[in-house]
Amino acid sequence: MKRKLLAMALIAAFSVATFAGCGGGGGDTSSAAAGGGGGGDLNFGFLNQIDTWPAYSAIQDGTAEKYGLSGLDTQKNMQLFDSGMPMVEAMISGAWQIGDAGSVPVLMAALRYDAEVVGIASNESPANAIVAREDNPALKVTNPKFENAKGDAASVKGKTILVATVSSAHFVVDQWLKSMDLTDKDVTIKNLEQPQAIKAFESGEGDFLALWSPELYQAYGKGWKDVATGKDVNANTLMLYFAPKDWAKDNKDTIARFLAMTSTKVEEYNSKGEELVPDLQKFFQDFGAMKFSEEETKLDIERHELYTVDQQLELISSGDVEKWMIDIGDFFVRQGKFTEDELAQLKEKHFNITDEYLKAAKDVSPSK
């Protein structure tokens, strides 16, 4: 809670403008450089998600020190955000230097503020989902395009969907509606952050609820059922490491050390799997004040693929990341957040995706 209050205070203190008032060009992120560095003055923006665990664990157990990132503290240097858009807004105030957010808000950061995508934390497509109450008629209908999804135009048109807009979950909603030849205009989209959305849905508001993990598992605990996941409707969503461009260029070594450090922890995550359940439960409780059952934690592991440095480089070189970003860019155009010209600008600069820092991370070795 202290981390979240600190993040909110920093946003307010710097009078950060919302995206609705932003122009199309890159914003001034030079102030972020003031907070940068390789030690205790390096701050991070994170969500309460499983791909935050590698950095959290590395700071807690001293791995960060071995990678030359000394003086870090999970309470002071890791800021918690409810979703990616508030994190992006805090970036332009200099509140943090390296962030980890979904591909949807990161794409907005790349366009509006010229943020650089410096790495790939995880694939979270199966962990973004639309749910409904058990008595929703849409659950009895197979989607016309995707066999693992539910709902058709007749059972969805005119209904209300609760979702944090301009989020990965919103992108899943968009792709789901598109599969039924529907758009946002055919339904009512109510913008709520996840905690508020869950409470509203529980009280009877809305027909569908779109969430991402770990809040998604609260929905399952209440008996709500999957209508569609991101994976079901080809809404490929990644958690991406990103940074203000000017700061990143001046602090290449720091980013490389961070990526090498987290990669070591991802190797541990991939090798131990469910052995890490107790550690992950403690992480979710300590970092985000959220209690996870053993079953929920295992499900979260199952629904997330975390990437080492080598795997990130392979994914970028395959072209898949850029292809998926184009899909999200098209979503923004449909939402009226981007113009066609702005999307063309992003395509021209390859969405600010770079493997420069990952390649540098391969040359980083921990101290003994």
Automatic annotation (TrEMBL):
Keyword set, alphabetical order: Signal
Keyword Transport: no
Gene3D superfamilies linked to this entry: Periplasmic binding protein-like II
Pfam families listed in its UniProt record: NMT1_2
Secretion signal, residue range per the UniProt entry: 1-20
Keyword flag Acetylation: no
Listed name of the protein: Sulfonate transport system substrate-binding protein
